């Protein structure tokens, strides 16, 4: 029974519930269930109360009460985060604040190329709203059917469009944030340029709800491309993939809208486990790349540019083989292959995942060196490497050896993490390129980041949230 | 004599001087002169000591001593800032810290498309270094022959390339900062993606030296365009210019690398005062636009794209007349016209300047409404409006009426500022789009920004610089 849980005083729970009304104060255990687990099942939290406010005023009232009573609040969007940033701890004393009912698109302005969306707008809903006014909101994630804008911003989400359009941070012009005290910081300005004081917006973006609650944001829109081409490319080596990336960027510039690198092992998993999957190429390639070109001019222009890039790649021996999708259906099929890669890893057993970035030029060296240390930790482990090459960001996942006990493999978690992250650090890379810190990497961040940086982050945290009620136990 | 000045104890000055050596401790009044005035002559400071450290270790030692002795430090780059952020106050107690000797390019990596430059590297020197490895550093400012990277970042400089490449902030991947205590915050990572904790980088960028001293930065490079076309366009109205901008962005995307709007009055001033200036077009246009297209593919491609945009503009009655520069010489001549606009305003007498931004869709309405309030303050004042239309950023300068006394006109400074800025605020715009706050707009920022925002900025300032020694009297 929820009332038996430690932590949250029932009378206080009543006061919180009164703010949103009984209907939107989730208190039955079964109803709470979806809010306290996260997609990978690594972190399961406990709470007796999930609040689903329907307005910024309600969020503000919740934070005011939380502030007065020092009640820890865990903001949550679509609950798709991969590092446990959005789930409560196991104390039972943390209240989950779901932003999903704040789901209005307040304004869309195709002339200024901006949209003002509330935190709970689902990414795909925003895609469709932009599409209706002939615009593009380019953030593109595997979870876009359920992830929400507030979470995208709080985690500074990345995805496949970053190479051309940047992360969630770069796509955000302004935010509305309910501060821990309940005050509303309103910076919803549709401005491309604004040099009036410190950049507070970028502190809230990526702060994983530890500094305040993002309730709405001004986001950038782009003209919708008139032509799009998707190619699948086979390459002899990671060096060749790097060279092709630079060729593509040189010729295509901002028209290069995706450059996804895929290793041999994830390709073999995909062929084995994705229903109706067929290999786009016939040969056996060390690496494959999904490359997308988008043209603002015309479909023919996208085609010509794609052909030019591939021709240049063939001539320079960067490309071994390539096929351009012959139809929208085939293009979607290529994308489905790429997006199902994480899924197709599951049937292969336990896995230890890394979300790393290194300077782009270091990618081939990273791949080489990381493979050696992985084998050092577990000789038969299988490296499942794929990711966003143009951002220097690899999902460097390790699947257990075929015959091994899952538990025995997972016992190597820390050693494997350390081995891979040590290579990352030696290359001045990042141990969390796009997924964030959350609970998963907090201890490691604190242990390995330069002490000044941690100290400065702590001071920022205290400056914004002196009572420490905003998503405690996350980030820092 | 400098030793008679109040504020800085001579014995303390000796200790500071010893850190950099006598040669680089500027103490003679005549030598100090260039460090205490700024380009517009609005702020003249006083100091008895300018330090010119030659290494990060020296900067660190200076800040350590400053911290121990609570000595205010004013960091300075190329001293081209327009808001007085880089000059000391008149107390004589502030020490100027010139970064100009930290002028090494530490590394340039054309594969990762990054460069690591020290704060004192002159922007044009960086342009040339990038050019030598066939790359582009796209920040483009009128002062690029003397402004420095540290100042560009501290002021989050804008300029003419922002429409395609973003501000100085967006071009920066990492910073090295000497903190007020002398500790070195080293975040010089060449990463496109990094979600490990709060975004401290973007706090230092744009902080006008009030949080720490930027000593080096990792900056983004881009492939050098293979083709460039510059056109001069005559337009019947601001609405037409806005429509043409959207046409150009739709067709050109990231290939649209400049879209500079110029009013009738600045054009007439230019024709009157710029040596050998000739009007690019024969007609009399309400507005003119300098538009630049850069192609990564080829010179022909840039030409075709420019022609397509202009054709579409003609067809939609957005364009009245247009000429594409027939040679590199003519393209440079077009750019010279644009860049000399501020200069050509000077012979017309006193001026009251504004550096504003509004949502792009609001630009025509702003132009209309601002003209009314300007006339309300001074009936015969001449509106000199030009700027970066694609960023919603206008330099909305007001020249005195032809016959008026300069002093009488300048007596209207506050009223004029208030009138124009009130229009900006009513449109949810910014009173400092790209020049920053410095001394010039500090009081206005504090008086008119939302109190929460000011309070949060003050907390950030205290968190980073509890003793208040970093560039006091600026920003906040």
Automatic annotation (TrEMBL), chains A, B:
Q: Does the keyword Metal-binding apply?
A: no
Q: Which UniProt keywords apply?
A: FAD, Flavoprotein
Q: What Gene Ontology biological process does one annotation of this record name?
A: respiratory electron transport chain
Gene3D superfamilies named among the record's database cross-references? 3.30.465.10, 3.30.70.2190, 3.30.70.2740, Uridine Diphospho-n-acetylenolpyruvylglucosamine Reductase, domain 2, Vanillyl-alcohol Oxidase, Chain A, domain 4
The UniProt GO MF terms for this protein read: catalytic activity; FAD binding
Q: Does the keyword Flavoprotein apply?
A: yes
Q: Name one Pfam family in it.
A: FAD_binding_4
InterPro entries according to UniProt: FAD-bd_oxidored_4_C, FAD-bd_PCMH, FAD-bd_PCMH-like_sf, FAD-bd_PCMH_sub1, FAD-bd_PCMH_sub2, FAD-linked_Oxase-like_C, FAD-oxidored/transferase_4, Oxid_FAD_bind_N
Location of the FAD-binding PCMH-type domain: 43-224
Which prosthetic group or cofactor does it need? FAD
Family classification? Belongs to the FAD-binding oxidoreductase/transferase type 4 family.
- This chain's protein is named FAD/FMN-containing dehydrogenase
Biological source species: Aminobacter aganoensis
Species lineage? Bacteria, Pseudomonadati, Pseudomonadota, Alphaproteobacteria, Hyphomicrobiales
